Amino acid sequence: MRRWLSYPYLVWMIMFITVPLLLIVFYAFTKQTDGGIVFSLDHFRQILDPLYLKVFLRSFKIAFISMLICLLIGYPVALFLSSKDFSQKSTYLMLIVIPMWMNFLLRTYAWLTLLENNGIFNKLLEFLGFGKVQFLYSEGAVILGTVYNFLPFMILPIYSVMVKIDESVISAAQDLGANSFQVLLKVMIPLSLPGVISGITMVFMPAVSTFVISRLLGGGQFALIGNIIEQQFLLTGNWGFGSALSFVLMVLVIISMFFMNANERNGKESML
Amino acid sequence: MSKSLKKAYLWLIILFLYAPILVLMVLSFNDSRSRATWGGFTFRWYIELFKDRDILLALYYTLAIGLLSSVIATIIGTFAAIGIFGYKKLSYSLVKNISYIPVINADIVTGVSLMLMFVFLGINQGFFTLLLAHITFNIPYIIFSVLPKLHQMDIHVYEAALDLGANPFMSIIKVVIPEIRPGIITGFLLAFTLSIDDFVISFFTSGPGVTNLSIEIYSMARRGINPKINALSTLMFVVVMALLLIVNKRSASNTEKKVRRDI
Questions:
Q1: Do A1 and B172 touch (CB under 8 A)?
Q2: Is the ipTM reported for this complex over the cut 0.90?
Q3: For an engineered disulfide with B20, which of A98, A110, B128, B144 has Cβ 3.0 to 4.6 Å away?
């Protein structure tokens, strides 16, 4: 059909997708000196500064713990939902999906209301005769917020792989004398691995780049990579360093996409 | 494990997902500034919400940007998809992959990259840049909603129109567009929903004086608890729910797109 119809978009794509990303690469790898703009790795060296390295490690730690909790909570959800003795699958699935459509900020804000010093949890503790607990502005609050926001991202990909698992494979395992634990260990977990890997990247990536959850629930003491990027662009104006951090996130996305693609292929092969 | 135990576990997770939202909704009718005591039923926060000029202005910007960006993105994206559909294999996958970048990239990176571009072009950040940014992240969703419909379409219908004397442009308007209409409408609704929901990209691409509801909520929440946010979230939840019901009636696959969008 008519290719020229896409030309306005091609111009748009180059101007607002390709060039902006190249600008990030440009700012990340250059430095302003007296002799003009020169190639430099200084911004990446700055990431290794203990102050920022700490933020980096913290981001990965929080994202990793959140991802692990999502996996531990979410895997059984997907497993139960996909089992044949559940009749209203689509209703349950819908119920899990709906909160995701609520504004992400409001979902995070909701926890601010629950966890604050005069919030419901603390009132409940008081009522039960315990003292108040400082829930907010802790690493735990950030992890809780992350898990809450991204749990459906773990459940859905695992579920969508699990429902496609051939029922007769499970029956065969049972016929051959496997108990339900062995079925889980030897059949379900290996076959659902592609979904698990998608789920892991879908939780880990937004978790590692968030700046809202850490700002609202961590109160600024628990700055993550996202917060540092925000700071560099909106406060300190060090675009080179901000771009270098963004570049690292981009590379991370590319790596995770590579994993997911490779996994999709393996997944298909193992299903054959 | 017994079925009832599994069911109990599922309901526990659903409770975890809904409890915070429900608490917000209940508190939006609470006639007390404190979050933990019930001071009686009231519409006070809703009334205050509609008296707040900043919020009303943000609502106006949210809707204006949402509508404009999704209409423009739908037009550019639909024609783009029709054009891309006719590409050779290599350029087809190249353009498709580049279009996929805003979908999979971290929002903060997309936002920052657009901000750099606007500075590079020397455009002052405000309504216009916000609009450009929203169109940019919306177009891929239109393309990826329309492309499958083009693949499903019978190409001979288009060729027949040409044979019967319609010029290429007329055949696209009269024959192709009606065939792919479901994809266009789904894409449009998805784009509109994503636009009114966006925070991170808007945060980096809007300018002084121009905020959308998400940015407004962020700045309010940063200052602490505010019962007006509860009222606002209840309203937004109801509106998004209504939109979602319409979109979901059209296609079940949108959820997956939203999942990819949120990364």
A1: yes
A2: no
A3: A110
